[in-house]
Write a sequence for this structure.
């Protein structure tokens, strides 16, 4: 379980940094390993560009993700994988396919629920949302779900099906 927690820490830290780097405005400079957004002065303004704040790790989010991994996700998948190994002990193409399918069908609703929660309450992962934390509007959240959920599920399948096939083989 410690390995899973470390992977979640690395994954969420990377995700936060990628989110930070991708939240750029029209002008940027390469600093700190990513395109750093700068406030662009208007052509009539003599103001200097003001850099955005430096990257700051969201410790609350990181601790929620790590807790999720340690307390829920890893134990559930550990039990699932043990059960599948008991049901289908032989390594065959059919059994690997079964395990890949079951693992994906087990994970998809959990991950979709997590995605939908994030669509309404970014970036905090606490429930209920902290006092004063505004959710996205219903319209914006449903648009995000409509536009991004299926591509995210497809990308997940594109990665996890082969990864799990290697794992189960």
């Amino acid at each position: 379980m410690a390995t899973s927690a470390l992977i979640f820490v690395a994954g969420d830290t990377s995700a936060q940094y990628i989110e930070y780097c991708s939240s750029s405005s029209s002008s940027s400079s390469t600093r700190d390993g990513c395109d750093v957004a700068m406030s662009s002065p208007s052509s009539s303004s003599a103001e200097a560009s003001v850099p955005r704040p430096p990257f700051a790790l969201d410790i609350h989010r990181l601790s929620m993700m790590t807790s999720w991994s340690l307390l829920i996700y890893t134990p559930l998948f550990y039990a699932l994988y043990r059960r599948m190994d008991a049901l289908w002990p032989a390594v065959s193409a059919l059994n690997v396919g079964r395990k890949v399918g079951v693992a994906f069908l087990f994970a998809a609703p959990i991950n979709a629920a997590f995605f939908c929660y994030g669509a309404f309450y970014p970036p905090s992962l606490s429930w209920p949302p902290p006092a004063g934390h505004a959710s996205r509007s219903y319209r914006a959240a449903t648009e995000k779900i409509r536009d991004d959920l299926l591509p995210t599920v497809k990308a997940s399948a594109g990665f996890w099906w082969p990864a799990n096939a290697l794992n189960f083989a």
The mean pLDDT is 79. Residues 138-168 form the longest helix (31 residues). The longest strand covers residues 34-39.
